[in-house]
Structures are given as C-alpha cells and as structure tokens.
Specification:
The protein has 253 residues and is an alpha/beta fold. It has two domains: 2-164, Type I PLP-dependent aspartate aminotransferase-like (Major domain) (Aspartate Aminotransferase, domain 2, 3-Layer(aba) Sandwich), CATH 3.40.640; 168-252, Aspartate Aminotransferase, domain 1, CATH 3.90.1150. The protein is 39% helix and 20% strand. The chain is built from nine helices and eleven strands. Helix 1 (6-12) runs parallel beside helix 2 (31-38). Keywords: Aminotransferase, Pyridoxal phosphate, Transferase. InterPro entries: Aminotransferase_I/II_large (IPR004839), NHTrfase_class1_PyrdxlP-BS (IPR004838), PyrdxlP-dep_Trfase (IPR015424), PyrdxlP-dep_Trfase_major (IPR015421), PyrdxlP-dep_Trfase_small (IPR015422). Its EC number is 2.6.1.-.
C-alpha cells in the first residue's frame, strides 16, 4: 500500500491496535518507539530479537539504522509466526534495503508481518513523499482507511512506478554507493575513527572526541548525525560531489 512517506506509516500502525507490550530492537531509529508510545503502548527496548519475550508486537529495522546490522530472513519469519500466534505481528522496516545484499521478507508477508519500504532514500527524492507498507489484505485495507483517499499524489505514483522499474539504474547505483561507502570508511579511519557499521548510504563511527568533531564539522557547514546517548558516535551521509568529498576530507584531517 502506498503512503505519503514511511513516517506516516510508522505513526499510523500503532493506532490500529489496542494498547499492548511492544519490543523495539535497538538501538535504532527512535521514531518507532516514540510512535508506539504516543499511541498508549508499553514500549520495551531490546538488544536483539531473542529478547522480544512475551511482547505482542516487535519492531526490527533491517538493515538497522545506525549500525547497519542485518538479521536473517528466516529468524524474522520465525518471530513473525510467534507473534501472530499471540494475536500480534512483526514490523520490519526495510528503509535502507534497496542497495544492500539483504534478503527481503516482503515475499513472505502474511497476517503476522508488516514490511515498511522507503523510496526517497534510495532515489534522493525525499520531497516526493512516497513510501510503502507491504501487508496482508486486511491490514493494508485498515491502513488505507486510516490514511484516507488521495494520500499519495498522482505525480508521486507515476515517478515511483518509473523509478522502481529501472532495475539497471538500481544495480549501477548500488555498486557506485558501495564504492562511496568504502571511500568514506578509509577517510574515517585516517581521522582516528572506529567504524561501528552502516549501509551503502551512511556510515557510523566512534571518535575519541566525538562531540568536538561534531562541532568542528558543523562550523564548516558539514552536518552529521549525533546520538545523545552515545556521544562518541557520529553518522555520516555520503558527500554529493567532488567538492563536498574534498571539504570533508580536509576537515577530517
């Protein structure tokens, strides 16, 4: 089911279920836990899927943001089956999966599984406001009813259809972004950073002077993601062109 961005799906899913216990595998994108909490659910952070326990709903970002950790599809499907037996379901957020060698669970979607797919990250078109929920027909219909008619614009649907059908572009850019990620890893290492992980669209590393480096980069007009609970870690996006690569390299040196 198409939606005006994945964020609205993250907000809407929790409102379609009576309050229950929800396990969010993290550390990960904070809006998942926040959205379930705002809808009245009891949210429990866990470090791995083995810690889901007796929760009725679990959320897994695969590959994970910000460390790029990947869970095997078989383990996710087994968890979805367990949650379905309790009257719940598993949410798998595959926002960064397009360029990664990750086995998607989309083909196995059923009553116990909802998969969220992004569009803007891969294609650099966040402003188009397009995302997808892949779910069984009953839950997809409930999401569609909650969002109402005309949730996604006609131009967004047309652009999305054309872009997603361009498999050669996806393959070529997956390879190109892998090269960019490796280049960024080398720059981070030369600057004294220790790579935590990431995807082909971002890299997360720990630095001895993380807060000070964040400030120096910001003063140079380079914004990276910082984490209040892990101040030594910074997440870097990919520079867009030669000038930006050079500027980041100078600042890291």
């Amino acid at each position: 089911m198409p939606a005006p961005g994945t964020q609205i799906l993250i907000e809407t899913l929790p409102r379609l279920m009576a309050p229950c216990d929800v396990a969010v595998v993290g550390p990960t994108y904070a809006e998942h836990a926040a959205a379930w909490g705002r809808a009245g659910h009891t949210v429990r952070p866990v470090s791995d899927i083995a810690g889901v326990g007796d929760a009725r709903v679990a959320v897994v970002v695969n590959p994970n943001n910000p460390d790029g950790r990947v869970r095997p599809a078989q383990a996710l499907l087994a968890l979805a089956e367990t949650l379905q037996a309790r009257g719940g379901f598993l949410v798998v957020d595959e926002a960064f999966a397009d360029f990664e060698p990750v086995e998607s669970v989309c083909p196995q979607v059923g009553p116990g599984l909802v998969v969220l797919r992004s569009f803007g990250k891969t294609f650099g078109l966040a402003g188009l406001r397009l995302g997808f929920a892949v779910a069984d027909s009953e839950r997809a219909a409930a999401l569609a009813a909650a969002l109402g008619p005309w949730a996604v614009s006609g131009p967004a649907l047309a652009i999305g259809r054309a872009a997603l059908a361009d498999r050669p572009w996806l393959a070529a850019n997956a390879a190109a972004r892998a090269g960019d990620a490796a280049r960024l890893d080398r720059m981070i290492a030369r600057a004294g950073g220790t790579l935590i992980g990431g995807t082909r669209l971002f890299r997360t590393a720990a630095f001895p002077d993380g807060p000070a480096l964040f400030r120096r980069l910001g003063e140079a007009g380079i914004y990276v993601r910082r984490f209040a609970e892990r101040p030594s870690q910074l997440r870097f996006g990919l520079p867009a062109d030669k000038g930006e690569w050079c500027r980041l390299s100078r600042m890291l040196r």
